[in-house]
Design goal:
- The complex is a heterodimer of chains A (363) and B (309).
- Chain A is an alpha/beta fold.
- Chain A contains 14 helices and five strands.
- Chain A is elongated and about 90 Å long.
- Chain B is α/β, with parallel strands linked by helices.
- Helix content of chain B is 33%, strand content 28%.
- The longest helix of chain B is centred in the middle third of the chain and has 16 residues.
- Chain B is elongated.
- Classes of the chains: A alpha/beta (363), B alpha/beta (309).
């Protein structure tokens, strides 16, 4: 076991001293996020579609609705509570304000504080929520000043409701994470492995009493460590700079990252098994990488792809890793049930591992 | 291993690749403490033979005993006890000499490992301890590769073409390392296609061609066995080969472009006859040299080919 650690440390040193590998592993996915983020961001304009449920019908609540109507950036849609809430969940509304029954009467009576409920989608980011809250609070404060009393007649109660309508960044970041894990498995596993074999380092190691599983374990340990570092970096950039709201369970995310990495490391070993030289491996890896990048719903939803591509899309493991990451990270509407995603990835892992065990040549 | 027992015994070793008979029934023994060389041109089957003895390749047929263990059954026990230097010298390019040595040390369970200090001194890489392996010269890489073969302080060391592609100075440095190992009582099996290397280093050599051993013996013994005559060479355009063949003691003679080579079984008489010719004005002896035959001549005679790369 200590040999695994020694080998692991040696390969970490090799990796860290290789600027090219560092760039492709860590900077490349981040560059993608920044590039796409900057190009496609700005979709979240300052115009809000606001649903108002007026359960009161008195004069004060009418005036409040009127006040909201007067705000330029608010587009008001009135309706019943259930309808409006489902519209919010679908992402057709940016927020929902509920004026409870008895509001006008209570304000006039000046006995109690009436709570105005506000519902919004937290995945649009903290800053966005603060803006909305601020505007609504300002309107209510205007009324509170008008009906100057001991009590504050109207209080605001914000409620967050997750919607399925994600921002572009919400959609993009889990996809980029999945892409980074795939490329770690392909470029980051196949290429070093084939060059270790071509340079006969594997043969030299074979001339020592080192058991092969030790080498294998240290290699997989290195890749998993890199995968976790990538995940942390991508999450950091996404939440820090692009306000992507991670609502999922981090433990579930860890599970998906580990499973996805292993599946693609397995694919990487399989490609290394059938490549004779560094040059042929390079071609093969690119040929596998390219369709995955564009047909697995990494940069855009798979729904926009033509129907005849559907069998290809469904055959690619990255489709499932991207979908699983999106579900776990930002709570998107599943393309496939999460258990299907997990089963497909596990299937790829098992099949690739078995084939690699059969086909891999050490020299 | 019991003392007196050979370090390596090979019996009727065979390895075919399709129709190519890479190793075709090779048998020999390497004694304890002996430096044994396999000499032959590229593709003669030297590396395939050494790799089957090391346990890196599986033989089609034949028996290999190493330090009392059987290949391939005891391959792991053998790997713990032998040192292997491979023909290729690629290593982790971004690790330093010390890091690579430390890494390889962790692969052995044996207690008596040589320290890094001792290893870098032994192969004369003390000044390159913290240099990354890709920045080492060819000769330095090869010496590092030899150091890797010595980590477990093995009694038996395999060196596969250790000086191929080296300049003469780097080659001498590596020979010094081998001489140091001889002093330490190591048994060494090495392959080479340099005659000079075999003559300098080996107690015994096996001449290998087309997958077979055609002769085994000490370099001096082999030369004696095939060449009792001494070569006399000089420049002289005054006569043809037939004239020289008439001289006393001369067995064969050749004359090409004025360069005359005579093989003589009686050098004093042949020399006297040559000097006699010169004094009567029939010829001139310029650039005269007299030397005994070398391993190179033996190889030429046995295989009909020169052994130059």
């Amino acid at each position: 076991m200590s040999t695994v650690i020694t080998l692991f440390r040696a390969s970490v040193k090799e990796f860290v001293r290789d600027r090219g590998a560092l760039f492709w592993t860590f900077a490349f996915p981040l560059v993608f996020i920044v590039l796409f983020g900057v190009i496609f961001a700005g979709g979240g304009s300052a115009n809000y579609t606001v649903g108002i449920v007026n359960q009161d019908g008195g004069d004060v609540s009418q005036q409040i609705v009127g006040a909201f109507n007067g705000i330029k950036s608010f587009k008001i849609k009135s309706g019943g509570f259930d309808d409006e809430l489902s519209q919010l969940k679908k992402g057709n509304l940016d927020m929902l304000i509920v004026l409870p029954a008895g509001l006008s009467q209570a304000v006039h009576a000046d006995q109690t504080t009436t709570t105005v409920q506000m519902y919004y989608d937290p995945s649009k980011g903290q800053a966005d929520a603060q803006i909305k809250l601020g505007i609504v609070q300002q309107v209510l404060d205007g009324f509170n000043k008008h009906y100057v009393t001991q009590l504050t007649p109207l209080a605001l109660q914000p409620n967050s409701v997750a919607s399925t309508n994600l921002t572009f960044e919400d959609f993009l970041v889990p996809g980029i994470l999945a892409m980074a894990l795939m490329q770690l498995g392909l470029f980051g596993t196949t290429m070093p492995l084939v060059s270790l074999r071509q340079d006969q380092v594997l043969r030299r190691l074979g001339a020592t009493p080192l058991p092969r599983w030790t080498l294998l374990a240290s290699q997989i340990l290195l890749r998993l460590t890199l995968a976790l570092l990538q995940t942390v970096l991508i999450l950091g950039l996404a939440t820090g700079a692009f306000h992507v709201h991670i609502i999922g369970n981090y433990l579930a995310l860890l599970g998906i990252v580990v499973l996805g990495s292993l599946a693609f490391i397995g694919l990487g070993y399989l490609l290394a098994s059938v490549s004779k030289s560094v040059e042929s491996a390079n071609g093969l890896v690119s040929a596998v990488n390219f369709p995955m990048m564009f047909l697995s719903g990494i940069f855009f939803p798979i729904a926009v792809l033509p129907a005849f591509l559907s069998p290809v899309v469904r055959a690619l493991p990255l489709t499932y890793l991207g979908d699983a990451a999106r579900q776990v990270m930002v709570g998107s509407t599943p393309e496939f049930p999460i258990l299907v995603d997990i089963a497909v990835l596990a299937g790829w892992l098992v099949v690739c591992s078995l084939l690699s065990l059969r086909l891999f040549k050490w020299e | 291993m019991k003392s007196g027992q050979p370090a390596i015994t090979v019996e009727n070793l065979r390895k075919y690749y399709g129709k190519t008979k890479a190793v075709d029934g090779v048998s020999f023994e390497v004694g304890d403490g002996e430096i044994f060389g396999m000499l032959g041109p590229n593709g003669a089957g030297k590396s395939t033979t050494i790799e089957m003895i090391e346990g890196l390749r599986v033989a089609d047929a034949g028996l290999v005993t190493v330090l009392g263990y059987q290949q391939p059954k005891d391959a792991n026990a053998i790997k713990e006890r032998i040192g292997i230097q491979l023909q290729t010298t690629a290593l982790y390019p971004r690790l330093t000499v010390v890091e690579i040595l430390d890494l390889f040390r962790s692969f052995y369970k044996t207690r008596k490992l040589l320290s890094t200090d001792e290893l870098v001194r032994l192969v004369d890489l003390d000044e390159k301890r913290d240099t990354r392996s890709k920045q080492l010269s060819g000769g330095q890489k090869q010496r590092l590769s030899v150091a890797l073969a010595l980590i477990n302080d093995p009694d038996l060391v395999f060196l596969d073409e250790p000086t191929t592609g080296m300049d003469p100075q780097a080659r001498r440095q590596l020979w010094d390392v081998v001489q140091e190992l001889r002093k330490r009582g190591k048994t060494i099996l090495l392959t080479t296609h340099y005659m000079e290397e075999a003559e300098q280093l080996c107690d015994r050599v096996a001449i290998v061609d087309h997958g077979k051993i055609i002769e085994i013996g000490s370099p001096a013994e082999l030369v004696r066995r095939y060449f009792t005559d001494i070569a006399i060479e000089f420049q002289d355009r005054s006569a043809d080969a037939d004239t020289f063949r008439q001289l006393a003691g001369v067995s064969t003679a050749s004359a090409e472009d004025g360069r005359v080579t005579l093989y003589s079984s009686d050098v004093p008489r042949t020399m006297a006859a040559l000097l006699e010719r010169e004094s009567t004005g029939d010829g001139k002896l310029r650039d005269l040299s007299v030397h005994s035959a070398t391993l190179e001549d033996v190889f030429l005679k046995l295989t009909g080919r020169a052994l130059r790369d």
